[in-house]
Amino acid sequence: MARDPSLEDRLRAALVEAGPLVWKPMMGGYCAMKDGHLLASATRRDGEGLFLFRLGRVAAEEALRRGIARPLRAGLRTMPGYVEIPAESCDEAALRRWVVLALAEVGRLPPKG
């Protein structure tokens, strides 16, 4: 995975009203962290732009069932509760909807250290 500044800009714009965030380079991309939890990321893998979101198991399974998202994989391991969305299929309105789902999930979690 590699960083993609244009995708990072799109993600930053979609998260402008999300409150305080910490941005970190992680997992080959640029990740938004809220209250110590991974919220979302923008990256490029094999030439494809991707947004990654933490949705929780139920919302992620629903997104996968509807064919909207793909499971997030780290090596050979599937990451439950996380999805990846091809950037080309994610206009600004769709990006905001994914952000709302991710913020709802992270908002349910207790803050980390």
UniProtKB/TrEMBL annotation:
Top-level lineage group: Bacteria
InterPro entries noted in UniProt: TfoX_N (IPR007076)
Boundaries of every TfoX N-terminal domain copy: 16-104
Name recorded for this polypeptide: TfoX/Sxy family protein
Organism: Roseomonas alba
